[in-house]
Amino acid sequence: MRQRRERFALQQLNFRPRDGKSGLDNCRQFEPYIAQAAEKRADLLVLGECITSMGNDLTYIDVAERIPGPCTDYLASLAKKYNLYIVASLHERDGHLIYNTAILVGPEGRLVGKYRKICPARDEYRMGIAPGHELPVFETGFGKVGMMICMDVHFPEIARGLAANGAEIIALPIMGGHPELARARALDNQIYLVSATYAVTDDWMQTGVWGLSGDLLVRATEKNSVVGAEVDLAEQYFWRPNMGEFKNRLRHERPAVTLPK
Questions:
Q1: Which band of pLDDT confidence, cut at 50, 70 and 90, is reported for residue 257?
Q2: Is 117 designated active site?
Q3: Lowest CB count within 10 Å: 110, 147, 164, 218, which one?
Q4: CATH for the 8-253 domain, from 3.60.110.10, 3.30.1220.10, 1.10.8.100, 1.10.3720.10
Q5: What is the predicted pLDDT for the residue at 1?
Q6: 27, 119, 150, 168: which one is catalytic?
Q7: 65, 71, 117, 144: which one is catalytic?
Q8: Is 2 a residue whose pLDDT tops 60?
Q9: What's the pLDDT at 252?
Q10: Which of 49, 65, 92, 124 is catalytic?
């Protein structure tokens, strides 16, 4: 693993694959943009939600695969080729169950970890997508990364659980939602939230980075674009003089509730 650095570059991609003949074919369409992110010296690149079934005629059943599998292996090879971490959401098959799963692959060319969406949307439930039950956090060369997917951002317990488990950055592949939810999750947990979606509009979820203040540090203003921000995990954020640095107070003053591990 790389030696940990406090300053690092978070990049997000607003790109919708088109007309792929397979999930792997969809994944191949991302390489030019991953190369662009590498040129910008990205440490972490977040792709969108359900990338293997997006923009094609394939169902989630068609594209579901075991993890690791062909698509995760391919994305891991790109992470190694371009020397960065990549997060993306795709459909995972595990026995008779199918999950909407976020993967984290790294510059060593392997799967670092995965997260199964805990809060599937209504239509996902109707299609039979199973919910996950764990909130894992993964060590990288620049910090501790947790992942959420789309509807998870609507429920504060998910981000809170990830932060309580040590996440400093949360990656969020997402179809869409109210952008104030991302602002709230970043602010109330004092984490950096990095989202990647498909739309470009002011009143919908952004492809961007939210900082500890809840402010949107950068966002995509054009489709098929890579945008990013450099952040510093050693940076302190003080809300008000009488509040101090609230990040260090959270673990001592938050109410005790049972959260998934």
A1: low
A2: yes
A3: 110
A4: 3.60.110.10
A5: 40
A6: 150
A7: 117
A8: no
A9: 67
A10: 49
Residue tagged 């670092």 (tokens) = 112
**Among candidates 138, 165, 166, 135, which has minimal Cα distance to 148?**
135
Residue 210 in this model has a pLDDT that exceeds 70: yes
Find the mean pLDDT for residues 1-11. Answer: 62
Place of tokens 């910008």: 40
Q: What is the pLDDT of residue 50?
A: 97
Please say if 65 is a catalytic residue.
Answer: no
Tokens of 131: 């919910």
Q: Which of 7, 15, 18, 72 is nearest to 196 (CA)?
A: 15
* Phi/psi at 113 (5° precision): 180, 175
User: Which sequence spans correspond to the domains of the chain?
Assistant: 8-253
Q: What is the pLDDT of residues 163-178, one digit of tens each?
A: 999 999 999 999 988 9
